[in-house]
Design goal:
single chain; alpha/beta; Rossmann fold; 4-stranded antiparallel beta sheet; 4-stranded parallel beta sheet; 7 helices
Length: 208
């Protein structure tokens, strides 16, 4: 039996900053609908690995392939439009824009949706992330949980095939983390692949 080709694959990824080697020949394979947990101590290179996969951090050596296509030389915007979403540990919304407007940027710029299609995508994502009732709130007025949800919503609005999550459970209470896990499980049911950095191991296990 021949193994299915991975959705997202990194081969021999190396990242150096001068003499400092952060990643040394890392291989990673993520298939459709997979949930891959990335664990390790601070400074192990976890966030750097996600940055290389997303295109925001250029690799010193190695290749990144998406659906078999070499995307190593593509930047994060181009990779996003091809199906790689990214949610950062520290949320990065446009503070002066509403929740709806922030998410609409992802749908229009990332998924290249227009008009009613973009509007429908935003509504779908906000409902999935529990933000529909806050659609008209400014992003800079949100608490941590809702900022984390908005960070995820902005990534999902781009209609990703794989989403890279960087400690989106950090700083949340157990109950709040459980709410995010429920959203992650729904993504898996929709066959969205996930690579997730998380120090709270039981959250990773629950989301798998």
């Amino acid at each position: 039996m021949i193994d299915a080709a991975p959705l997202l694959e990194g081969r021999g990824i190396v990242k150096r900053y001068g003499e400092l080697v952060v990643l040394d020949g890392v291989d990673v394979r993520i298939g459709e609908g997979d949930a891959v947990g990335v664990v390790g101590p601070n400074g192990a290179g976890k966030t750097t690995l996600l940055g290389v996969l997303a295109g925001s951090v250029p690799a010193t050596a190695g290749t990144v392939r998406l659906r078999g296509d070499d995307v190593t030389r593509l930047g994060p915007d181009a990779r996003c439009r091809r199906g790689i979403g990214r949610a950062h540990q520290v949320p990065r919304p446009f503070g002066g824009m509403t929740v709806f407007e922030n998410t609409f940027v992802g749908a229009s710029a990332g998924a290249r949706l227009r008009g009613r299609a973009a509007y429908a995508r935003v509504i779908e994502v906000l409902e999935l992330c529990g933000l529909a009732e806050l659609a008209n709130r400014r992003a800079d007025s949100l608490g941590l949980l809702h900022r984390k949800r908005l960070e995820l919503a902005r990534a999902l609005a781009t209609a990703p095939a794989v989403v890279l999550l960087d400690e989106i459970g950090a700083g949340l209470t157990d109950a709040e983390a459980d709410e995010l896990v429920a959203t992650i499980r729904e993504l898996r049911r929709q066959r969205v692949a996930i690579a997730w950095i998380e120090h709270i191991v039981h959250v990773l296990v629950q989301g798998a």
